[in-house]
Amino acid sequence: MQTSKKEMLKIYSTKMTRVSTDIIKQFLQFKDLTSTISDVLDSLGIFGAIPASILKPVIKGKKIVGPAVTIRHISENMNPAASLSEGGKSKLKIFDILPISKRGDVLVIDGGSRTDVSSMGELAALLMKQKGLVGSIVDCGIRDISSIRELDYPVWSSGVTPITGKMRFETVEINGPVTCAGIPVRPGDLIAADDTGITIIPLEKVDEVLKRAFELSKAEEKLIEAIHQKKTIARP
Question: In CA terms, which of 68, 81, 114, 178 is 20 to 30 Å from 105?
Answer without folding.
Answer: 114
